[in-house]
Amino acid sequence: MFAEGVALPTGENYEAALVEISQAQNLADLDSLRVHWLGRQGILTAAFKKLGELPADQRKKEGHVLNAAREALESAIATQKASLEAQDTKRRLARTAIDITLPGRDAGTGSYHPLTLIQHTIEDWFSRLGFTIASGPEVEDDFLQLCSAQYWRGSSSTCHA
Protein backbone atom coordinates (compact mmCIF):
# COMPACT_ATOMS: atom_id res chain seq x y z
CA MET A 1 0.00 0.00 0.00
CA PHE A 2 2.17 2.90 1.21
CA ALA A 3 5.16 3.29 3.44
CA GLU A 4 4.36 2.87 7.12
CA GLY A 5 4.34 6.09 9.09
CA VAL A 6 4.98 8.37 6.10
CA ALA A 7 4.02 11.84 7.24
CA LEU A 8 2.53 14.56 5.10
CA PRO A 9 3.94 18.08 5.07
CA THR A 10 1.35 19.02 7.71
CA GLY A 11 2.71 16.36 10.05
CA GLU A 12 -0.37 14.09 9.80
CA ASN A 13 0.01 10.52 8.66
CA TYR A 14 -2.20 8.25 6.60
CA GLU A 15 -2.70 5.60 9.25
CA ALA A 16 -4.38 8.11 11.52
CA ALA A 17 -6.73 9.03 8.67
CA LEU A 18 -7.59 5.38 8.07
CA VAL A 19 -8.39 4.92 11.76
CA GLU A 20 -10.57 8.06 11.78
CA ILE A 21 -12.41 6.86 8.68
CA SER A 22 -13.08 3.43 10.16
CA GLN A 23 -14.43 5.06 13.34
CA ALA A 24 -16.81 7.49 11.58
CA GLN A 25 -20.28 7.09 13.10
CA ASN A 26 -22.40 8.71 10.41
CA LEU A 27 -22.29 9.81 6.78
CA ALA A 28 -21.80 13.49 7.65
CA ASP A 29 -18.64 12.74 9.65
CA LEU A 30 -17.38 10.51 6.87
CA ASP A 31 -17.99 13.21 4.28
CA SER A 32 -16.17 15.81 6.36
CA LEU A 33 -13.19 13.42 6.61
CA ARG A 34 -13.30 12.90 2.85
CA VAL A 35 -13.26 16.64 2.26
CA HIS A 36 -10.51 17.13 4.87
CA TRP A 37 -8.22 14.59 3.20
CA LEU A 38 -9.25 14.42 -0.46
CA GLY A 39 -11.15 17.66 -1.10
CA ARG A 40 -9.97 20.63 -3.16
CA GLN A 41 -8.31 22.19 -0.13
CA GLY A 42 -7.57 18.79 1.43
CA ILE A 43 -4.31 17.63 2.95
CA LEU A 44 -3.58 15.06 0.25
CA THR A 45 -4.37 17.55 -2.51
CA ALA A 46 -1.94 20.04 -0.98
CA ALA A 47 0.72 17.32 -0.85
CA PHE A 48 0.17 16.59 -4.55
CA LYS A 49 0.58 20.29 -5.34
CA LYS A 50 3.92 20.36 -3.51
CA LEU A 51 5.27 17.48 -5.63
CA GLY A 52 6.26 19.99 -8.30
CA GLU A 53 8.83 21.55 -5.97
CA LEU A 54 10.70 18.25 -5.46
CA PRO A 55 13.55 16.90 -7.61
CA ALA A 56 12.51 14.37 -10.29
CA ASP A 57 13.74 11.20 -8.54
CA GLN A 58 12.16 12.15 -5.22
CA ARG A 59 8.99 13.36 -6.98
CA LYS A 60 8.52 9.92 -8.54
CA LYS A 61 8.93 8.15 -5.19
CA GLU A 62 6.64 10.56 -3.32
CA GLY A 63 4.10 10.43 -6.18
CA HIS A 64 3.81 6.66 -5.80
CA VAL A 65 3.40 7.02 -2.04
CA LEU A 66 0.74 9.74 -2.40
CA ASN A 67 -1.16 7.81 -5.09
CA ALA A 68 -1.17 4.70 -2.93
CA ALA A 69 -2.35 6.78 0.03
CA ARG A 70 -5.14 8.33 -2.03
CA GLU A 71 -6.30 4.91 -3.25
CA ALA A 72 -6.21 3.54 0.31
CA LEU A 73 -8.21 6.50 1.63
CA GLU A 74 -10.78 6.30 -1.19
CA SER A 75 -11.16 2.57 -0.63
CA ALA A 76 -11.56 3.00 3.13
CA ILE A 77 -14.12 5.78 2.62
CA ALA A 78 -16.11 3.69 0.13
CA THR A 79 -16.10 0.68 2.47
CA GLN A 80 -17.15 2.73 5.49
CA LYS A 81 -19.83 4.53 3.45
CA ALA A 82 -21.32 1.20 2.34
CA SER A 83 -21.28 -0.02 5.94
CA LEU A 84 -22.96 3.14 7.27
CA GLU A 85 -25.61 3.08 4.52
CA ALA A 86 -26.36 -0.57 5.33
CA GLN A 87 -26.74 0.33 9.01
CA ASP A 88 -29.05 3.24 8.13
CA THR A 89 -31.16 1.00 5.92
CA LYS A 90 -31.40 -1.62 8.65
CA ARG A 91 -32.46 1.02 11.21
CA ARG A 92 -35.02 2.52 8.84
CA LEU A 93 -36.53 -0.89 8.08
CA ALA A 94 -36.70 -1.73 11.78
CA ARG A 95 -38.62 1.53 12.42
CA THR A 96 -41.08 0.98 9.60
CA ALA A 97 -41.68 -2.73 10.12
CA ILE A 98 -45.22 -3.82 9.30
CA ASP A 99 -46.95 -6.65 11.11
CA ILE A 100 -48.63 -8.54 8.28
CA THR A 101 -50.72 -10.58 10.73
CA LEU A 102 -52.80 -7.52 11.70
CA PRO A 103 -56.11 -6.95 9.90
CA GLY A 104 -55.90 -4.61 6.94
CA ARG A 105 -57.28 -1.12 6.71
CA ASP A 106 -60.87 -0.68 5.57
CA ALA A 107 -60.93 0.42 1.98
CA GLY A 108 -64.14 2.34 2.64
CA THR A 109 -67.21 2.44 0.49
CA GLY A 110 -67.07 3.64 -3.05
CA SER A 111 -69.18 6.25 -4.75
CA TYR A 112 -71.53 6.36 -7.70
CA HIS A 113 -70.34 7.09 -11.21
CA PRO A 114 -71.13 10.68 -12.27
CA LEU A 115 -73.52 9.50 -15.01
CA THR A 116 -75.39 7.32 -12.53
CA LEU A 117 -75.76 10.35 -10.23
CA ILE A 118 -77.21 12.39 -13.11
CA GLN A 119 -79.60 9.55 -14.00
CA HIS A 120 -80.85 9.36 -10.40
CA THR A 121 -81.33 13.14 -10.29
CA ILE A 122 -83.35 13.14 -13.52
CA GLU A 123 -85.45 10.17 -12.33
CA ASP A 124 -86.20 12.05 -9.09
CA TRP A 125 -87.35 15.12 -11.05
CA PHE A 126 -89.66 13.10 -13.26
CA SER A 127 -91.00 11.14 -10.27
CA ARG A 128 -91.93 14.41 -8.57
CA LEU A 129 -93.74 15.49 -11.73
CA GLY A 130 -95.89 12.33 -11.58
CA PHE A 131 -94.14 10.12 -14.07
CA THR A 132 -93.20 6.53 -13.31
CA ILE A 133 -89.92 4.93 -14.21
CA ALA A 134 -90.32 1.74 -16.22
CA SER A 135 -87.39 -0.59 -16.21
CA GLY A 136 -86.51 -3.07 -18.89
CA PRO A 137 -83.65 -4.33 -20.95
CA GLU A 138 -81.48 -1.68 -22.49
CA VAL A 139 -81.13 -3.59 -25.77
CA GLU A 140 -84.26 -4.75 -27.60
CA ASP A 141 -84.25 -8.00 -29.57
CA ASP A 142 -86.69 -9.72 -31.97
CA PHE A 143 -88.47 -11.55 -29.18
CA LEU A 144 -89.25 -8.38 -27.27
CA GLN A 145 -90.26 -6.44 -30.39
CA LEU A 146 -92.33 -9.07 -32.18
CA CYS A 147 -93.03 -12.26 -30.25
CA SER A 148 -93.98 -10.72 -26.95
CA ALA A 149 -96.41 -8.41 -28.78
CA GLN A 150 -98.30 -11.61 -29.82
CA TYR A 151 -98.72 -10.88 -33.49
CA TRP A 152 -100.42 -13.71 -35.29
CA ARG A 153 -98.11 -16.31 -36.70
CA GLY A 154 -98.93 -15.85 -40.34
CA SER A 155 -98.02 -12.19 -40.41
CA SER A 156 -94.90 -10.98 -42.18
CA SER A 157 -93.85 -9.32 -38.95
CA THR A 158 -93.77 -12.53 -37.01
CA CYS A 159 -90.98 -13.52 -34.75
CA HIS A 160 -88.13 -15.55 -36.23
CA ALA A 161 -86.80 -16.71 -32.92
Explain how this protein is built:
This protein is mostly helical and 161 residues long. It has a domain at 14-95. Helices cover 56% and strands 0% of the residues. The chain has six helices and no strands. It has helices at 14-22, 27-38, 43-50, 56-95, 114-128, 142-147. The chain is rod-shaped. The model is unreliable at 1-7 (pLDDT under 50).
Blueprint of the fold:
Elements lengths: L13 H9 L4 H12 L4 H8 L5 H40 L18 H15 L13 H6 L14
The tally of helices reads 6
Helix content: 55-70%
Catalogue the unreliable spans.
1-7
For the sheet with most strands, the description reads:
none
Question: What brief labels describe this structure?
Answer:
mainly alpha, 6 helices, 56% helix, rod-shaped, disordered N terminus
Short description:
With 161 residues, the chain is an all-alpha fold. The chain has six helices and no strands. α1 (14-22) runs parallel beside α4 (56-95) and α2 packs antiparallel against α4 (56-95).
